[in-house]
Inverse folding.
């Protein structure tokens, strides 16, 4: 492709989509590059709470509302996966699977993906009992035992979605304290078929061609415990989608992207917003706020 964009945005999640809408009212030549479904990770969220305008909304419905904005505003969406991002002279060069794209400015809003627990068979049994998405796969485990691993908002939210489906749901967490919001913990505790199993670490995934259980180890006394289950949902945090960044000094040691108060990275012309920023709390409204602030910078308002 020979076009040079004023701004290319990597990632069509809440940050990227909000940014395109903010920029669309100007004369900026902008496009958004996305390799999966527009809307980002909200597509697999069973439920989003307290997003402005909604008390509760299923994730895919909110994702569709975001996507509709890009359609209504005639925003160009390029369906491609960015493999490398470099800077040559004063232009950013984005190599994708299908084409190469150039821009004067780039905004990285590529978010995060699920962190794995790192046990043998985790990859092998993916789709054979292991899943990272309750909304997509929960129905496979109707009236079966399900184990959810993790103590953050993701684990609790997915567990709340899975509890009514499961025969019994075990929430396994390595500490007795939880990172998740108190209200989510109380909501999950209210289910009569839910058992909290703490402080336990997952030790071994059991089963040959499908999950049959999990072996856990007590963090305090090292005693082992086996839970029979057909469904296993490891939800132990996020890792940044930033492997494509080949510009020096942009990533921190974990692969997140630090920015200053103008959302500028260490590389002039390169901005970042949303879940890819190194912050403790990752919420949709923060990603939307980031987009609005980045738009102001890009439009010199
Ligand atoms: P998180 O908050 O980082 O929680 C990860 C959990 O997994 C922690 O409880 C952690 O234990 C545990 N863990 C990490 N590595 C582990 C391992 N190897 N084995 C066993 N357990 C392990 O991640 P998250 O829940 O995905 O949330 C990420 C961000 O998104 C958070 O800021 C969260 O608030 C936000 N979020 C918000 C919503 C919402 O609707 N408001 C929904 C989902 C996510 P320790 O606690 O001991 O470290």
């Amino acid at each position: 492709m020979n076009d040079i964009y004023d701004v290319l945005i990597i990632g069509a999640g809440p940050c990227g989509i909000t940014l395109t809408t903010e920029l669309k009212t100007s004369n900026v030549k902008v496009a958004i590059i996305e390799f999966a479904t527009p809307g980002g990770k909200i597509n697999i969220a069973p439920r989003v709470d307290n997003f402005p305008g909604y008390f509760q909304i299923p994730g895919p419905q909110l994702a569709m509302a975001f996507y509709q904005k890009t359609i209504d505003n005639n925003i160009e969406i390029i369906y491609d996966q960015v493999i490398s991002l470099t800077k040559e002279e004063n232009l950013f060069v984005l190599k994708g699977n299908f084409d190469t794209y150039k821009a004067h400015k780039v905004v990285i809003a590529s978010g995060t993906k699920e962190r794995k627990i790192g046990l043998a068979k985790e990859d092998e049994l993916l789709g054979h009992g292991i899943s990272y998405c309750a909304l997509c796969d929960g129905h496979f485990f109707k009236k079966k035992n399900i184990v959810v691993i993790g103590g953050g908002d993701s684990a609790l939210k997915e567990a709340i979605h899975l509890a009514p489906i499961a025969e019994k749901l075990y929430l396994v967490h390595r500490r007795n304290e939880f990172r998740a919001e108190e209200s989510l913990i109380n909501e999950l505790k209210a289910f009569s078929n839910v058992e909290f199993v703490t402080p336990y670490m997952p030790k071994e995934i059991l089963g040959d061609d499908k999950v049959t259980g999990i072996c856990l180890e007590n963090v305090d006394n090292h005693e082992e415990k086996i839970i029979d289950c057909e469904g296993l949902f490891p939800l132990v945090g996020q890792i940044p989608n930033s492997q494509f960044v080949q510009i020096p000094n942009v990533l921190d040691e974990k692969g997140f992207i630090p920015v200053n108060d103008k959302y500028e990275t260490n590389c002039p012309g390169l901005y970042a917003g949303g879940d890819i920023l190194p912050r403790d709390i990752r919420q949709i409204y923060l990603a939307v706020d980031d987009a609005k602030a980045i738009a102001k910078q890009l439009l010199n308002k």
